Amino acid sequence: MTDENLNATGVSAEVAAPKKKGKWRGVKKGTEEYRALDAAEKKQTRAINKAQAELEAQGLHSEAELSRKEIKQILVEERKLRPQVAEQCVRLVQVAAREHKIPANQFLVRYGLKNTLSALQGASCELPISSEEIIDGEVLFQHELECLYDFSMFRQPEVSFAPFLEARFNCKNNAMYISKLFEKDFAECHRRWTEEFFPQIDSLGLRPDYTQQQARQWLASQTDHFKTFLLLASRNSFKSSWSKFFVLSLVAAFPDVRVLLVSETHELSTLFVGELRQYLEVREGEAPNKFLQLFPEAAVLAGEGSSMTYENPIRHLRLPAPTIRSTSVDASVTGGRYDLLVADDILSDQSCGNEKQIKGTVSRFESFWKLGRGRQRVNFCSWNTLVREPPGPL
Fold first, then answer.
1. With a threshold of 0.70, does the pTM exceed it?
2. What is the number of domains present in the chain?
């Protein structure tokens, strides 16, 4: 439907008028035949009125606000988004409507934000195409990405769809790129950690609706030989901050990844996962950070779920462990399987002060280690186990 089919209110003018009620020639009022004809006419009138109301609700200038359920239904049934992606897009639609002071009506959901704003200026527009085209390196279909881009990037109108995809690709493949989105003051050593020491995530090859077997093969291909890394760095070298961005790059590339964060104490582990969750949280009434503007499908509401875990909203393999969880060496339970283990500052003079403490700490770490060595899992990367030294001094 283009604007040529719309009247001043954005509603199609091609609606048949109901027949006028009255007596039918040769049919006596009060008879069964008369009542049957009269009922049929009323039914037709109700159907026409309903169709008229539906068209008015679809109109550009309709003030009828849709509920979350109604928005999701249109996104799934008409725009062909997968349910978990549509669920993430619902909030984007509502926020975009609120920011532009327009109703979250059917026209906005069906045509998109850009088309709606253009139509309000008198331009013609067509319904977006909903074909399941694949973009290599993305786990979302192209039409899903276009919908997310349309409703999430209005705060950066200078960024078109192609640079949007390029920025997403860079985030997945380089933790330093993500750090710049948060204006972190990283140095040359961090670039070398990213590009010369730790694996650079290659998002190519992982496609929408990947199976668990395909995910395992993709994850195993991220390193040719080394799967365990030790980073020895001085205090205040931002190694913990850098590791969080490495985790974000993997989460962005592989929504079903399982990351286990381990610190020495419960307090440290709470702080570790808390800061990481903040990068993935949105608060009502506040603009999302630049990372979540690029990856709105990964956002969760602040305070939603456990503060010690994060679950990617678009993961689909239904694995029992959450996307990110945190524990500590002094915890009574080590947790479940993982794909990436990040052991950050798990040693101190309090845990390695004597032979007994050293044996206890080693035993505890080995229990974490074994969780990643299952037949169906890949121990992708961990800290504080010496296999390979990082390049160059700080």
1. yes
2. 3
